[in-house]
Amino acid sequence: MIIEARGLTRSYAEICALKPLQLQVPEGEWLTVMGHSGSGKSTLLNLMGGLDRPSAGTIQVGGVDLASLDENGLARFRREWIGIIFQQHHLVPYLTALENVMMAQYFHSVTDEAEARAALERVGLGNRLRNRPGELSGGEQQRVCIARSIINSPRILLGDEPTGNLDHQNTRMVLELLRELRDQEKFTIVLVTHNSEVAAWGDRTIFMDDGVVVRDEPRGAPA
Amino acid sequence: MKRLLVVLSRVVTGRRTTPVILGLFLLVYIGVAFFTEEALVTLMMLTRRVPLLLALLAMIPLNLAARLVGDLRLELRRGRALAGHPSGPLDGLFDEEVRLAGEGRLAELEAWLAGAGYRVKRGEERIAAVRGISAAPWRLLFRFGQFCLFLGILLSLTTRAVVREAVIEGEPLPAVAGAGQVQGIRLAAEPGGLILNKSLTVTVAVPSAGGGRLRSFGLYPPGLLNGAFFYPRYLGLAPLVQFHAPDLAGEAGSYYLLMLYPPGREDSATIPGTPYRIVFSLATSPGDEDPFLSGKYVLNAKLFRGEEPVAEGRLPVGGALERNGFRVAVPEVRQLVQTDFIRDSGVLLIWLAAALFAAAVPLALLILLLAPRREMLFRASGQEVIGYSRAEGRVRRHNGVFHEALDLSAPH
Amino acid sequence: MALAVKAMTLVLCWGGICLGLFRAFGGARRTVLSGTLAGFAGGAVLVVALAAAVPATALAATLRGVLAVGFLLLGGVAVTHLYRPAGATLDISGPAAVPPGRWPAVLTSAAAGLVTAAVGGGVLGALPLGPDRLLPGAITLAIGLTLPFLAVAGERRLPVALLLTGEALLALVVGLLLLLSSSSLGLDLFAPLSMKVMKLIHDFIHQFFESMLIPDHPFFRNDVWTYIGYLFSNSVGFWGGLALWLLPPLLLVLGLLRKPLPSVAHIRQGAQRRKLLASFLRARRWQLVVPWLTVLVLAGAVYRSTHPATEYWDPKPVPVSAGADGTVVLPVKDGERDLDDGRIHKFALRDGEQEARFLVVMKPDGRYAVALDACAICQPEGYGQAEGTVICYYCKTLIPLETVGQPGGCNPVPIRFTASEREIRVARQELVNAWVSTVQAGARVPGGKR
């Protein structure tokens, strides 16, 4: 198992966003997390990515208990293990697509223009390297985000409503790309969505409500 | 014997030979400096006279020549390898060599490298990709310049012969310069000169097959006369000085060679057979034109009897100075140039070296900064791909492309 | 105050050397501790014995010689560092890149201790050891024998990634020793180096002009000759000396930067390649720390050399005149002035528009010397007195008091005189002629005489 949560709990003052949760995710699986707003799915994602600390319980990623890491350790863990795609792309507007990807390399280790170029070519943006985010469509921007999130070869790719702002065609394009990359690179995907069509792309879906996993179902290939 | 030859060959072609020898000379210089104020001149003299030092100095151009040949061969071999011609083993031609199991996927590689800005040439089971301008020609030129410089220094040190003679208007050339008559010496102002603001022209009539011809020699570059450089050094005057003293019978008259340039400089004429000495200098006031330019000479004269001054005053050429029974007259004066006649086989080589450095260094620097040469070669044979890489600049960026190219040619 | 400043310098330098030794020979800390203590103690004994046996000038020359050998060795190592074997890459292995084993550690730390003790003793003024020099001697010993213990503890607090190769250790030790020696006029190397460099450049330019058959200076444009004249000026010695001074550590930096990083081409995953490359770059950055630190240290040594803490005794010249017989008479005792006090006394003789400055001093051997306040080589900026020597302000050459009155080099031009118990007599004409011929000849060429 690449992710193991035991009694994982997160509270904010009197609000319990995540009640004690048990979850295991095998390596290479595409897990979808569904639930309405406030159900705790983003909280779960943040804890898996080391972006937050649990109030109780443990979460182990790759055999490492994240609670045992200090801030520097968590930062190192995030750099080397985690790639994140958000609904808002958070690309730097004055940098080109190539430079945005190279920025992720910079914070990881050193930059490599050729590798960044190859990553953008893999996501189908080989002819848009020198364009800034404002000159790209929504789907293209999200593809830059995907290239940025996989450039450091993470073991786990987390997505928080990555297709939330995209139309149907671009959504399909992004999901196909994710599947292709997952099959090639063998990383684990954990995707948060409220869209059941998006959820159908995953291998397994868990449904959350009020901080608790209420259902855990395998899913087949998309329609 | 064979080992000795191998060692000698390593020394002659080694990269460290020249720096080591220069370091040895530095140590000798430091040692010499403890014993004399004229350390550099002493070192030059020692080098001329001590065979070991001379041999060490001679080793430098030999080493540079050997390295030049070696570098040239290396560049030619590399060029042939990149062009796809048989070039033998590629050891030492590239900075990196990587072997991978795989088929090569040369078509994809070609497209990828072209997209990265490289000029790609594909052959049978090989791809060569280059970018930028090679600085090799300029490096070789620089190396050749180094060779010329040190060979020139060696030759100059061992063959230089200098004879300094006065070249006087209206007089025959000194014997060392051969037959000829000095027709004129003219100093002129060159206000627009880049470095020199005066020009000096020495006109000489020399015999030739058809009778005689006039030749002119200037300041720079010095001309050649009978195989020797004509190197004008110091201007002066050859006045005819007529002198009478109360305790002398008659009047002494003779030409004296006086180095009085620039105005203010003093030189003395000792009257032979007498205790008298006249110290001359050119009289000028601020704002006056240089007398050597105008041709109008007024001399300051101080007359000494032994160490005791007995008279002084001013006299124009053609005039006389009379004081206390002493009389000094200068009826006429001729211009002269103290000239070094130099035989030196090394000077031209050193000038050539300077020109080569002036050409090679800026160009090589520009190329290395703006468009450095980067090269890759991929050879596929059977189930193996061998990648070679070399970069003269922007190494990290080039290595990135090389590594991605290797990823592309390796199987997934 | 001066002693406190020099003691602080010794603390800084010896502390830095010990830290460097402990870091370089990390696996042999006890050996290094023993070596430094034994070396320092032994060096102190040796130099005290030498100071009692040989003149101070000879001892200073010996110590300067040792420092110079160290500097030359560093220069040679730095140049060799540039010429790496083909295919060699940056060495990022383990913390101890110096030769392993006890003997290199012992010899290096003992040698460093010995030289530091000798130079430190000289700098703090403990030599030759005597009743009035016990305090500086005690301070030197206390610092020398205490700091290694502190350094052992301090070295553990240094970042683990700070590696010290053999070349870096040599650079650090030599640099700190030169910083220490720059606190003393007699041991400073930079001033004589810059003078030798100035002489070399002057000679080289002169030879170059001769060899390349370049015309004499009256034919040059004035502005062009002014620029060429800078090459004959005093400042060319400073800048040339500074360039040579800083060259060895800068060559070490250059050698490290030019050395290729180990190859990562055998790794097929981009992120792993970059991570490895980043670690190599980090290792290289740490290896650059000590060479750059050495550049700073040597720059500090130059500053100390050019701004010495020593104050020179430089009295204002007293105007004098000659009597009817053309003789200048100087009473040995005249009010507060006492020519027997061992300090230089300056006088100025006016002859028309010319003023000839000269000095009188009683040397350690009890004999007087009378000389011009100018030498035959330099611009006539005059002399000051400090630490048993006179110093030429122009070229910063130190002239032992014993040799004042002898001609040659940068010695002040000697003047003939007669001396009795009560007065010293000097001929006016002698003074004026000497001054005119010395100073006038020097005025022709900027920077000194041809």
Could you characterize the architecture of this molecule?
The complex is a heterotrimer of chains A (223), B (412) and C (450). Chain A contains 7 helices and 10 strands. Chain A is of the alpha/beta class. Chain A has one domain (3-218): Rossmann fold, CATH 3.40.50. Chain B is built from 9 helices and 19 strands. The model of chain B has no long low-confidence stretch (mean pLDDT 90). Chain C is of the alpha+beta class. Chain C is flat and about 100 Å long. In chain C, strand 9 (389-392) and strand 10 form a beta hairpin. Residues 442-450 of chain C have low confidence and may be disordered. Chain C has 2 domains: 2-196 and 232-306, no CATH class; 318-443, Rieske Iron-sulfur Protein, CATH 2.102.10. In chain C, helix 1 (2-24) runs parallel beside helix 5 and helix 7 (190-211) crosses helix 9 (234-258).
Brief account:
The complex is a heterotrimer of chains A (223), B (412) and C (450). Chain A has 223 residues and is of the alpha/beta class.
Keywords:
A: 223 residues; alpha/beta; Rossmann fold; six-stranded mixed β-sheet; four-stranded antiparallel β-sheet; 7 helices; 10 strands; 28% strand; B: 412 residues; alpha+beta; seven-stranded antiparallel β-sheet; 9 helices; 19 strands; elongated
- How much of the sequence lies in strands of chain C comes to 5-15%
When the domains of chain A are counted, the total is 1
Amino-to-carboxy terminus distance of chain A: 29 Å
Query: Can you say what the CATH homologous superfamily of chain A is?
Result: P-loop containing nucleotide triphosphate hydrolases
**Number of helices, counting only DSSP H or I runs of 4 residues or more of chain A:** 7
Strand order, sheet with most strands of chain C: 1-5-6-7-11
Structural class of chain A: alpha/beta
Number of helices of chain C: 11
Query: What helical percentage do the residues of chain A reach?
Result: 25-40%
